[in-house]
Amino acid sequence: MENFEKSSDPSPLNIKEMQEYSRRFIEDRDWTEFHTPKNIAMGISVEAAELLEIFQWLTPEQSFQIKSNSGELQRVSDEVGDILHLLIRLSSLLNIDLKQAFWEKIKKTEKKYPISLSKGKTAKYSRLSHD
Amino acid sequence: MENFEKSSDPSPLNIKEMQEYSRRFIEDRDWTEFHTPKNIAMGISVEAAELLEIFQWLTPEQSFQIKSNSGELQRVSDEVGDILHLLIRLSSLLNIDLKQAFWEKIKKTEKKYPISLSKGKTAKYSRLSHD
Amino acid sequence: MENFEKSSDPSPLNIKEMQEYSRRFIEDRDWTEFHTPKNIAMGISVEAAELLEIFQWLTPEQSFQIKSNSGELQRVSDEVGDILHLLIRLSSLLNIDLKQAFWEKIKKTEKKYPISLSKGKTAKYSRLSHD
Amino acid sequence: MENFEKSSDPSPLNIKEMQEYSRRFIEDRDWTEFHTPKNIAMGISVEAAELLEIFQWLTPEQSFQIKSNSGELQRVSDEVGDILHLLIRLSSLLNIDLKQAFWEKIKKTEKKYPISLSKGKTAKYSRLSHD
């Protein structure tokens, strides 16, 4: 219906295939004992900060312009890939369904920030309600 | 209702649908101006730390036992959902293909940590190679 | 000599007194076993993200204006206090001299970013040198 | 040369001197415009994650043994120095008294986690009170 360009139509993620590949990757290196949920959660924070570092000194406008800087965009893509890998790994270890986690949480956030109270404001709901 | 073994076969993620839903969620609240790539990257670090906090005081063993504590597991699932939402949002803003980001990065990591040098060690490759 | 206002002349930090107080605080609550260096490092990331969250949606200009918003400034001060507490705790556990850590590291950073190469640029030195 | 037992009696931090040195360091490099409170807060998260990374794969016991590994201990000290530098920088920009921030916050934490309710537990007070 909508006249999307190809780039706006990303492929679905086959989580099962990604989990399997990741598991084998870890087992091949005998890293299983290091992969506690606690250590994976640490890894997500570490990778998230490497992503953050790319944007650290940029103005808001420059942070959009990364889109046309192929070197920096590749760095962003690599960090995004790392974070996604660790989310997939954690979901595998704790038997969390990523799809369900996404939809459940966004529905909760919709309730927490109702449109009428949230328009154009980013404050926490707890404070919004006192405005 | 669904005839589906969640743990063994997680559903694929329909990224396009998630991106569209997220975009509408943001637009409905007039939050578009706040959603610079820089601010989204900050959000990922903030949510990653909320995930980290859940595991902060746990022993390695306890971090696995979260699997059978439904309350704590729900907290983990909510944070995972938030991080995934922000990854999807960032990929949408910068036109990054999440599937490609995952596979490209895991292939790079495989080269950086070859099985023969990495077995049972977690040190950075740069240091591994000097061992 | 310089005609500083009172607020510009902060008191020296008595690290020993702070370490002692913190140690007693932890022992009184039987928290010693939880205070591994690893867990304290996690705590620093958690508190740093709580600080980050305060600034998440602000423009660069608004991030300065926090100075005149006593409620938000108190939040910042509280997070700064938490991070400093955990730095003091970690330095105590690992026998690190905070004063020496500060001066040693700033001297290294001065060498890594020489004034002539760094003026007005924030890129990493490794990339600066290729400009 | 100095007749001084480092571990038992760390030197007080002369915050004023550190703030002045840091200000000159920034001005010499024309970095003032980049040093918004928002960007400094991002820097603290980035450095905190670099500290976290050192401990990521260590067992609780190994995280104590870093004390006798001079190379790793130096890495920890460098990250601690960076975080302290940024705390000092932020306190300078927002006119926060670090000493006061520490003592105010630890007193609040003492009230939030009273000894009688907190002994040997690390759960948040909000949940403690419902136990």
From TrEMBL, chains A, B, C, D:
InterPro entries: dCTP_Pyrophosphatase (IPR052555), DCTPP (IPR025984)
Top-level taxon in the UniProt lineage: Bacteria
Protein name: dCTP pyrophosphatase 1
Pfam families xref list: MazG-like
EC number, UniProt record: 3.6.1.12
Keyword Hydrolase among UniProt keywords: yes
Molecular function, one GO term: dCTP diphosphatase activity
Record's keyword terms, sorted: Hydrolase
SUPFAM superfamilies: all-alpha NTP pyrophosphatases
Lineage: Bacteria, Pseudomonadati, Chlamydiota, Chlamydiia, Parachlamydiales
